[in-house]
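Support case: FE2/S2 (inorganic) cluster complex. Customer-provided input:
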Amino acid sequence: MAHDVIDELDFEGLTEDEAELLEEVLGDFGESRRKFLGRSSTAVLGALVLELLYEKNAHAGTTESVTPALEENPITVSFRVNGAAKSLTFDSRVTLLDALRERLALTGTKKGCDHGQCGACTVIVDGRRVLSCLTLAAQCEGKDVTTIEGLAKGNELHPVQASFVKHDGFQCGFCTPGQICSAVALMNEAKNGDLSYVSTDFRQNPHALQLSDDEIRERMSGNLCRCGAYPNIVDAIREVHTGKATDPLGTQATSQTEVHDATV
Ligand code: FES
Ligand code: FES
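Agent response - structure generated as follows:
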């Protein structure tokens, strides 16, 4: 794809570093000649540089996509992502969201607002949910990061994923990875006895918090869904939290499900 447009590009408008990088990647693709049309913006060419690098690394069979490029303040971070040890060098200002999506090709985590307002970028760090757009990759040294890609065990969906499917807890699906990561961490919070803004009974056994629908709604309020799948999302989470299977077409409890460990 990126390969197809190489013949229509030249390096005018790129910084010296970008031009060198593009030259190097083009060399890897065996390109000997390039033409300049003069209408491509610097931004487009910059994006092409990144795309070519992804393509190059895909050919090399690695998921650790981009060679440190154009970094002004490199910092090496060692952490675990979905159980795999990673040691990568980032610009110190790179967010966890960009590191996941652009360096590790884990594009399940979505960039919605990039300002901490929508929850689409939610991932789990050391068992707690975080907004990866507001978290620096450099803050994750030694930590355990779980993204939507790390929840299923092979072909077996995580109970929260399965429940979202059963209850139709999504429409377009853009917010869904963040919703599911949030919901999985919410199970941890209930297990740990963490209280919320709407908690009313502070004397409950902190290790057996039973979350009401209001609690679930409050705890999920940082995850927006423009498709408005909220009622089904609450149904999906309630089912996993209570272990009581419900009919997706109603709210009647139908049976006691096997209680899975829905935490990570
Ligand atoms: Fe992070 Fe919206 S992309 S909160
Ligand atoms: Fe479309 Fe939530 S399913 S934004």
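The pocket of FE2/S2 (inorganic) cluster (ligand 1) is lined by residues 111-114, 116-121, 131, 133 (CB under 6 Å).

Case will auto-close in a few days if no follow-up is received.
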